[in-house]
Design goal:
The complex is a heterodimer of chains A (199) and B (717). Chain A is mostly helical and 199 residues long. Chain A has a domain at 59-105 and 128-199: Four Helix Bundle (Hemerythrin (Met), subunit A) (Up-down Bundle), CATH 1.20.120.80. Chain A has helices at 21-50, 64-88, 92-119, 128-159, 169-194, and strands spanning 3-6, 11-12. In chain A, helix 2 runs antiparallel to helix 3 (92-119) and helix 2 runs antiparallel to helix 5 (169-194). Chain A is elongated and about 70 Å long. Chain B has a three-stranded antiparallel beta sheet with strand order 3-5-4, with no helix packed on it. A two-stranded antiparallel ribbon of chain B has the order 6-7. Chain B is globular, with a radius of gyration of 27 Å. Classes of the chains: A mainly alpha (199), B mainly alpha (717).
């Protein structure tokens, strides 16, 4: 089959959606960050599988607030997605509103999680479970805080009118990071809160 | 079908993604007069615009800042276009340009020079150790000094030399080999270098104080834990490695995205040089493996500083967890530091055999197969730790299987020499010497992959011999050969051939004299990492021979350095392609101009500069005519597999941000080391601020819509 390459076609210029370097960069970043959490969970299961301690030390975790918090985080992800959709449709006021809601929900997650932390009678130096619990959720918390700052920046940039339906790759890229942080939480939630019920 | 559809439908991806050039040849179609419907196949569903993801060229809004047809033309040296390009890409003179440059050639050269300085430092440490071990009962070093020396020797060579030197080659050469004007993320590239430099300095800060890391480069707990190692030694190592991991990771991401997006039109995935395959494989491995070691070091630092219990045996922690996390990273890392070097040989050796590499596809695939298997062999570093026999059998078997893809590459090189007409220049000697050393190192590797033999030889000098054959043989020899090969490209001058041959033979003889007897020492039972030994052990003669060999090897390196210094000043001037090599980097002048390619070439085969000779019936590449792209710093982005033009990429201007982000990042780690909470938080805030400046959407990069406005939808301006 003959190949021919058309060289006089119009091409988009600059950071255009999924053709932008940043889109590819964030995918690679997610791969490496995902591995980091993978190794963290490996550490948890490796140590948990060999422990002779009471696991978790205070008995099975109470699921109500963490489940609510999980829903809050997922809703936040959905808001970011809708906000991006609104930019595509040139509905900038709606986009700002949804992004603001996503941001507020992200902050809620942080506050609730900090409150959860304060309920424990032990900390990360008290016992092995405490070390694991606080490091795993702490790593995730760090990512959520970075994500919340990113959402704030996106909100600011949308409000400043930086983006329109033709160029908004920052929202796509930042949004993907936020989705990643949320998906990782599902793995962490399953590991720390659900799996203790099964052994 | 819109114009966009046609543009994306220039070729059938299924047909052109194979590793062979299309048998019926191909052409470059320019202008509507050549447009024949028969050239276009039905649209591939994957290539159609996806609604929200793809751009939509509305016929009512032809905004040239957002969409344009890249101009095709030529820009010979001295033309107005060429001068304009040089102005666009030139860095500011003086210290400003020095701090802010993001030119991949400058960064690559910095990587090479810095890594080479670390090689010399690590080498000096080794020589002091060889003085200590030359005779029994020596007292040149105390045990603690010896511990710090072998630990710093390992850290320096494995982390600060062997990958960074390869990153240097790849940074310098990738855009030139791929036909691009820079890497995908030029600022990230600069950031990666600065962090590497700061991490290297960080790891050496405690050395002059006599408090250097001292638990060996793989730093096993509990010896490296808070109980047995109370000084700052291990904290420096732990924090330094996390910092270095940042540099390695962002560098790897840059290589991956560059490969998939920055190739010249027509350079489909089967046409890239093997060095690209090697570095890509290493980069992908780094993305997945580096988090493991960064996490391990971070957890160790927490155990030491905040009383967590990950490795604390008394409270349920497991020391073996350290070994798992370390070697899950450590073994892929072995391939990370050799596969790009093997790529150097696969690309450069054929030039001196006057024929293409035998088995390009097999070598490319075996490169990736090696790495894939490399993720499943880490337990062979832990055979003696009491793991269940089933695990030992499995990992012993995979360790042996990995010799198959390695052998594929070895036979490809031998066949290339066999079927070619070798020219016995200095680079050829280094590459041929590498093949021999690789085979010796490979054989001893298969030996210790057998569990029973490993139990006998573990922690003896046999292992030391094996790992030095592998690391020096597969890394240092190709690197030195690579410098001989690309020196004319880097500096526009040839290296001296007589000194070159001397440097090879002295290095080769010294190396084998120094390291081959170590196999014997290991079989005689001499353990590694002992600072001295008694005269009646029967190790004295072999140790003396080894020490003499080490100094001869060092003399060879010295001759090489002299050669570099002499040739920089007095070497014969080099043409753009002094070796008559086939790949794209030899199409530009020596040294390359700041913009790399005056026009982005169109590539039709794997050997663009040998097409007339090889006559592979694959059409001809177009090197003088190509995309001009000179409305600011620009280059072309292409599709990942077929390299079809996809987007005009706006490249960033020089920037101080990478330097400052790197600096503040390093200072965060200094703050952690000094236990200064306020300073750490302050520096972390400075990092966030720098990142915000870096990522702020810019009109110049068309991350925001530039000022020319057409649509009424743009109310928020």
């Amino acid at each position: 089959m003959a190949e021919a390459m058309q060289l006089d076609q119009a091409l988009p210029v600059g950071s255009e959606g999924k053709r932008s370097g940043g889109w590819w960069g964030i995918l690679a970043l997610i791969a490496t960050e995902g591995s980091l959490f993978g190794y963290l969970l490996f550490t948890y299961f490796y140590l948990a599988s060999q422990t002779e301690q009471h696991w978790p030390p205070e008995g099975l975790p109470i699921l109500f607030m963490p489940t609510m918090n999980t829903l809050i985080l997922l809703t936040s992800s959905a808001c970011v997605w809708i906000s991006e959709r609104c930019i595509q449709r040139s509905q900038f006021d709606w986009s700002i509103a949804w992004m603001a809601l996503a941001h507020i929900l992200g902050v809620c997650f942080v506050v609730i999680q900090l409150n959860e932390w304060s309920k424990f009678t032990y900390d990360m130096s008290s016992n092995l479970y405490g070390s694991l619990y606080f490091i795993i959720t702490g790593f995730h918390m760090l990512h959520v805080i970075i994500g919340v700052v990113i959402l704030m920046a996106l909100l600011l940039w949308i409000a400043l009118g930086y983006f329109d339906h033709r160029r908004y790759s920052a929202v796509t890229i930042g949004g993907l990071y936020w989705h990643f942080v949320d998906v990782v939480w599902l793995f962490i939630f399953t590991t720390l809160y659900l799996t203790p019920y099964f052994y | 079908m819109t114009d966009v559809d046609v543009a994306q439908n220039m070729s059938d991806p299924a047909g052109s993604s194979g590793l062979k050039p299309s048998p019926e040849g191909e052409g470059w179609v320019r202008g509507n007069q050549n447009k024949e419907e028969s050239l276009f196949n039905p649209p591939h569903p994957n290539l159609l615009p996806e609604g929200e993801g793809a751009y939509a060229v509305s016929s009512t809004s032809p905004n040239p800042a957002l969409t344009r047809i890249p101009e095709v033309g030529s820009a010979p040296i001295g033309s107005a276009e060429e001068k304009h390009l040089a102005e666009l890409w030139e860095s500011a003179p003086g210290w400003r340009g020095w701090l802010s440059t993001i030119d991949h050639k400058t960064i690559g050269m910095r990587y090479l020079v810095t890594a080479f300085i670390f090689l010399l430092m690590g080498g000096a440490e080794a020589l002091i150790m060889r003085l200590q071990l030359a005779r029994p009962d020596q007292t040149l070093l105390t045990p603690e000094q010896y511990n710090q020396l072998f630990t710093m020797h390992g850290i320096t060579m494995i982390f600060l030399y062997s990958l960074p030197v390869l990153s240097g080659f790849s940074n310098y050469l990738w855009p030139l080999m791929l036909g691009s004007r820079d890497m995908a993320f030029p600022r990230l590239n600069a950031f990666s270098y600065w962090v590497f430099l700061f991490a290297g300095i960080f790891l050496y800060t405690s050395f002059p104080l006599g408090e250097a890391p001292n638990a060996g480069w793989f730093n096993y707990v509990p010896f490296a834990g808070p109980e047995y190692n109370t000084g700052p030694n291990i904290d420096v190592y732990a924090l330094g490695m996390v910092l270095l991991g940042i540099s390695t990771t962002v560098g790897a991401i840059n290589f991956i995205v560059t490969l998939f997006r920055m190739r010249a039109p027509g350079m489909s995935i089967g046409r890239v040089p093997i060095l690209i395959w090697g570095t890509l494989t290493a980069a992908v491995a780094n993305v997945f493996a580096v988090p493991s070691v960064s996490l391990a070091f971070f957890l160790l630092w927490l155990d030491r500083q905040t009383d967590t219990h990950f490795f604390d045996m008394l409270n349920g922690g497991k020391p073996l967890l350290w070994q798992h996390l370390f070697w899950m990273f450590g073994h892929p890392w072995v391939y990370v530091v050799v596969l790009p070097a093997m790529g150097i040989v696969s690309d450069a050796l054929p030039t001196f055999c006057r024929r293409p590499l035998v088995g390009y596809s097999a070598v490319a695939l075996s490169t990736m197969a090696t790495m894939l298997l490399g993720f499943g062999v880490w337990i062979h570093h832990m055979f003696a730790t009491g793991l269940p026999p089933l695990a030992l059998s499995f990992f012993g078997a995979t360790s042996m299987v990995i010799s198959i893809p390695s052998a594929v590459a070895v036979f490809a090189w031998i066949a290339t020499i066999w079927l070619g007409r070798p020219v016995f220049n200095t680079p050829f000697l280094f590459f041929a010497g590498f093949v021999i050393l690789f085979m010796i190192g490979g054989f001893s590797g298969v030996m210790v992959a057998a569990v029973p033999l490993d139990l006998q030889l573990n922690e003896t000098y046999f292992i030391v011999a094996h790992l030095h054959y592998v690391l020096l043989g597969i890394n240092v020899f190709p690197v030195v050969g690579g410098i001989y090969y690309w020196f004319p490209k880097f500096f526009g001058r040839m290296m001296d051939e007589t000194l070159g041959k001397w440097s090879f033979w002295v290095m080769f003889i010294g190396f084998n004299l120094g390291f081959f007897p170590m196999h014997v020492l290991g079989l005689l039972g001499m353990p590694r990492r002992i600072y001295t030994y008694a005269p009646h052990m029967g190790w004295s003669t072999v140790n003396m021979v080894t020490s003499i060999g080490a100094f001869i090897f060092a003399a060879g390196i010295l001759i090489f350095i002299v050669n570099i210094l002499v040739s920089l000043k007095r070497g014969a001037l080099a043409s753009s392609n002094p070796w008559d090599a086939p790949t794209l980097e030899w199409a530009v002048q020596s040294p390359p101009p700041v913009y790399n390619f005056a026009v982005i070439p169109f590539i039709a085969s794997r050997h663009p500069l040998w097409e007339d000779r090889l006559d592979e019936n694959a059409g001809r590449s177009s090197l003088d005519q190509g995309y001009l792209l000179m409305e600011g710093r620009e280059t072309i982005g292409t599709t990942p597999l077929d390299a079809i033009p996809d987007v005009i990429l706006k490249m960033p201007e020089d920037s101080y941000t990478p330097f400052f982000l790197g600096l503040f990042g390093a200072l965060v780690f200094v703050g952690l080391l000094l236990h200064s909470r306020e300073f750490t938080v302050l520096m972390a805030l400075a990092c966030s601020l720098s990142l915000m400046v870096w990522l702020w959407p810019r009109k110049a990069l068309v991350q925001r819509v530039p000022d020319i406005k057409y649509n009424k939808g743009v109310a928020h301006g």
